[in-house]
User: Fold these one by one.
Assistant:
Number 1:
Amino acid sequence: MAVYTQVTAEEINEFITQYDVGEVVSFKGIAEGSENSNYFLQTTEASFILTLFEARVNPDDLPFYMGLMDHLNHKNIVCATPVRDREGSNLKTLCGRPAALITFLNGMAVNRPKPEHCRQLGGELARMHMAAADFDMSRENDLSVSGWEKLVADCEAEADRCAPGLRNVLNEELAFLKANWPVDLPKGIIHADLFPDNVFFLDGKLSGLIDYYFACNDFFAYDIAVCMNSWCFEADGSFNITKSTQLLKGYNEVRPLGQQELQALPLLCRGAALRFLLTRLYDWLNRVEGALVQVKDPTEYLTKLRFHQEVRNATAYGLDM
Amino acid sequence: MAVYTQVTAEEINEFITQYDVGEVVSFKGIAEGSENSNYFLQTTEASFILTLFEARVNPDDLPFYMGLMDHLNHKNIVCATPVRDREGSNLKTLCGRPAALITFLNGMAVNRPKPEHCRQLGGELARMHMAAADFDMSRENDLSVSGWEKLVADCEAEADRCAPGLRNVLNEELAFLKANWPVDLPKGIIHADLFPDNVFFLDGKLSGLIDYYFACNDFFAYDIAVCMNSWCFEADGSFNITKSTQLLKGYNEVRPLGQQELQALPLLCRGAALRFLLTRLYDWLNRVEGALVQVKDPTEYLTKLRFHQEVRNATAYGLDM
């Protein structure tokens, strides 16, 4: 939680003249988001989020993210959408950073999702997958198998500092996933980071998805696996099969899952667990004392990985097909 | 800039039922304020700031702050005001912290105030002083002479780590101020921390004052001295007499300054400079690696103190009376 780049009143007043959105009424830095700087901006006409993209985001990927949000919004998937300036551009520069003015999405993230939240999540995820089918840009998932390979190489020497025996776990899991990773599952645009923080609810109803800045082309079912990891485990590390059943049901009602996808779920869940274990481990090993962002616990995802390693087939996730 | 206490969607939804303000539409932590946790809260009816008071605020002082904001608001001084719950209370508890729901004030702090901003500031400061005259609570200024004495005692041994010779400067200045501090200037409620961050402007007009959490009873002219230090120096340390002239003019138009007050200004400015030098020095010496809040530079106020030490009379501040 942080604002990395400070934008002054003078700078935002000047910036906003490029858009047809009225005049600034209020402007406050938001203590959310661990990658970018976000501001809440209220104008005489509406509310917005101003995002300044910081060093970890590849500027070359920004047109893909902006285009995707725009596309989904036109397809009635409720998500924050970049606003175009008077010249039609939805990506600008402010304080030396790429910057986007994004529509404000009502709702709040839930801290402890209930099964009903998981069901709605599943449905919206499937709708999003289908709505993106005719989006004409693509972005490779740089945090799939070859990305994990790089992260293991970067982290393995120091991994046991985080958890004894972790180096072996990482190497064995990577070898297993490389040998068994599917090649022919249904693919398309996925969100790839749909944690509870990135899903808003209002009055108990899902009100929108945010933070598309890991979106890419990959297996649809891998997106489900990311959600299974982030929505269906309890704080004590136990897996909640009621929640995963609802997640899968919600999804399956909108976009029926094929047998191959279901069979691949345990493997995909292992891959998703390894992905977040590795990025958290990288951040943990490279943490800077005094940094604004709190480093997340890598071992949470080690526990999740171990759970999926024991799963023999998708019935462990509760969908009885 | 930080949110120290995390409030979940479930907790804020529950909390808000105690008020007659509609239902929660949006809730986001704000990266502002170095003492308390602040959230932006939008309901179906209006926008608010939710403040959770953290360890540095004395809970016994909160009824004074809440009462003062309430009083000033009724006197048409635009400031954020605590909202009362259904039982009439404007001070509650949330997540184990004292908490207040405060009305949302439009406008933005200016980063580089211009003379015109200073003039408006002066006028509003004088109006605030007069509006608080019949407020029936009081709070001693614990950051006046006896407070400085404690801070010098706490900091002097290590002070030279911050700036060579600082220990001597502190002791000599404290001795001088103790011997010369005025006793009979006009007194009343003062803001005592009216930095540019705490004054909002909208369309170039002053739209309100925030952050009354240092307010106390002291000399009115001391409040001007605090503003003189925080509004009238340039980033390079030079004093801008045009700004101070406008500040004093704006004030004097609303509440004419007496000869005694004007004569005391150089001394009061030294006191105000020492006060912020000491609290910044204390924070600097006691800074924790990894803390969320960036420690402000104490030597900025050493430079300001030195300027005021050379001032022989109030004409150096530009008001020719």
Number 2:
Amino acid sequence: MRVFNFAAGPAMLPSPVLDQAKRELEDWQHLGMSVMELSHRSKAFMAVAKAAETDLRDLLKIPINYKVLFLQGGASLQFSAIPLNLARAGAPLAYVNTGAWSQKAIKEANRYNPVTVVADSASTNFLDVPPEAPWPLPLDTSYVHYTPNETIGGLEFPYVPLTGDVPLVADMSSTLLSRPIDVNRFGLIYAGAQKNIGPAGLTLVIVREDLLAATRPELPATMSYAAQSAEGSMLNTPPTFGWYLAGLVFQWLKSEGGLEVIGKRNNAKAQRLYEYIDGSGYYTAPVAKRGRSWMNVPFRLADPSLEATFASEAAAAGLANLEGHRSVGGMRASIYNAMPIAGVDALIEFMRDFAARYG
Amino acid sequence: MRVFNFAAGPAMLPSPVLDQAKRELEDWQHLGMSVMELSHRSKAFMAVAKAAETDLRDLLKIPINYKVLFLQGGASLQFSAIPLNLARAGAPLAYVNTGAWSQKAIKEANRYNPVTVVADSASTNFLDVPPEAPWPLPLDTSYVHYTPNETIGGLEFPYVPLTGDVPLVADMSSTLLSRPIDVNRFGLIYAGAQKNIGPAGLTLVIVREDLLAATRPELPATMSYAAQSAEGSMLNTPPTFGWYLAGLVFQWLKSEGGLEVIGKRNNAKAQRLYEYIDGSGYYTAPVAKRGRSWMNVPFRLADPSLEATFASEAAAAGLANLEGHRSVGGMRASIYNAMPIAGVDALIEFMRDFAARYG
């Protein structure tokens, strides 16, 4: 029996996607082999690859002047690839610090270029987003980087920053495909797959064409957006099985009604959970209301010594992986696209019962 | 029905591995979730990761002073990672040129350090390996890099080069696990998974501990052998499903009797096919006998205009993907570990019949 899996990533995948992957694992499209045994340059796999890109473009309404890349290495490798692809050597970079993932991106960019932190949530202990007022950018800033949703802290921007002509770069690892976005607002969007897209090992990059030009000589060839774009993300062998699974996820999202429907459902899931927590008298959600994530819901128990009991009783009730990140403790419910409303309802029911017994 | 898949990579996987992956795809170890939905830091996945490493160490008899890394990005990303991890800036690097993959490695290394080609098969049109005599190395060479098996050309070294105290680095993408090797002869071994290890998207690196020290500041954090080694290849989320599948492949190899048995079987498969080709009077194998690959067997038809007919008739007979690489043409049978002897026999039978009908 499948459980409700609240892990932050690798995370729950839609059951229909896993059903289909299982059915055709050994004999895909009656070719007598698994999709993962296909040459990436075969017509059969090229059709898989193309369909996935087309469906992603449909879902996100990606304009034609943006390239879509299916890469490897995780968002963390992009922390390096972004400055090496988009910044002149020595040019200032503007970064926004809203928590653990912002900080990793900053640390890596700083290896290559001088980073200015232009907005910072540190003074709120990363429990609120920076004010929306336009941030002062250093002269000749190559780009502004921010993390629309901090997976660990559960802190999410309720707005898209205004950066004028300076390209906006967004680590959307834990928020891409959770609702409609206006891709035109961004110079580059990137995301590790293992939350809302597919299995770990696939990384999506959506980049505006005019940003492909200025790579640096120390950039490894397979990390070059221009080179990968010219080769359809097949400068070398791509993670074919992950690409195929992402394609199945995109089809599932379309069959569910697309991102308008998904976004409303995700909003409803999050609101229901936060409302219960706020009114419970036993649990608390630490993040300021305007910065609360739809995807990652951190919460605390009135008695923190009961956290391990909570997690293990929840797991026994079919609600898995509710422990918070090891760096912050507490509890966290990650409720990505694949988590049905029934999963959130089951969690609330369990929380109510737990509070009644221990509160 | 499963076919015999002669693709060069992504390639055929052992049927028992796919059977098991299929059985447990939606509910792994009765946890109510897929292995690809597990957190990489969960106890359950850490056990998968550890078992895979232990089995690989057993199979290859990897000494304890070598680290094993499960990475992303393919062998092509290692073309950059190797100089950035192992070479001082400006130090000379020695490379051996035996074909297409050597040349890609050379081109990428040259981006970072001056490369000297110390042995070259170009004068044989890449149909023979360089002489075994010790190659003259530039003073202070950081390492010697070679490609034990050229997947496209089907050219394989019958010997391990002697490089004295200079570390030997080997791209074993298409030969690792095909037979026993003496890991002590190497400073670093790397391999993309999609031939003998698992699905595309996983990359193995086996590196001697004393080579972990000298990284350069421009090295992206996730590409650092030292940093990944310190974090058990989990500096960021690894390709968990590929890691799991590789573990199943390692278990399968052990259940088959280990690399001694596998090596004998692979040798028998290759000898049987080359012997048939040499005696056929219709097909020719272009590579010099001492340099013939056990894994990738290129061959030509007496009438090259029949190549497309050969490939399509073979495919119709359940012998898939026999076309040579688009850069060289001709035919190529890749016969990795997962290809049973019955597959080679079926190919020979088809070739005999084809030659009788068209020869």
